[in-house]
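Re-run with default settings, no changes from the original entry. Doing this only to confirm the output is reproducible before filing.
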Amino acid sequence: MLYRLLTALLFLSAPVFAEELPLDEPVVQVPVPEEKILTFQACKREFSFETRFELSQGKNNLGSITKSSFRLRTNYDLYDVDGNYEALGICRKLSLGSIFTWATEIDIYDKDGGYVGFVDGQVITGAAAKFSIYNAMGDCVGIAYLDLKGASFTVVDPENEQRNLASFKRNYVQSTTDHWDVQVYCPKSIDMRILKMFSAFAVDTQEKFKKDT
């Protein structure tokens, strides 16, 4: 009995060591890849029955947008590099855009008729021209401002206008066919079909903002 009591007292008086826990492994910070900047050029070609806007990147063809001469409303048909139909842009007829280019409104649909987005020319603005860009959900995802020279658009984040999303710049050479250089800094912010449609609109109406001669 005495032996058991002494054993118990020795056990209770022995120092208790906490179980050794494994050290946390160092947290490795994985860098978030930046969005790759997309660039392309838009150039206008006139044919007998249609106007074609060729999209290219260097020597690579990126597709085209056509505007038929036989439609009552201005329509832009987008095709991919293989000639597959991708989207349709329809300029609204019953709007100020039928009179003033800066007020143009364009509804954009995919190849199945699903709504893609909307480009809305703003009437009240201090800029030379201002176009709000909406996605299929009706959210404003970009605002395109025309510079005072009428030769470029800058698309900014509507929630932070210091953040540029894309730019459209006219290469103005008097008495020659111009082309527009497009840079998309944040490809995930705005549907590329909308931006391609807007590039065709910019080329198509460039003389309304800056005279060719």
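The first helix runs from residue 2 to 13. The chain has one domain: 38-205.
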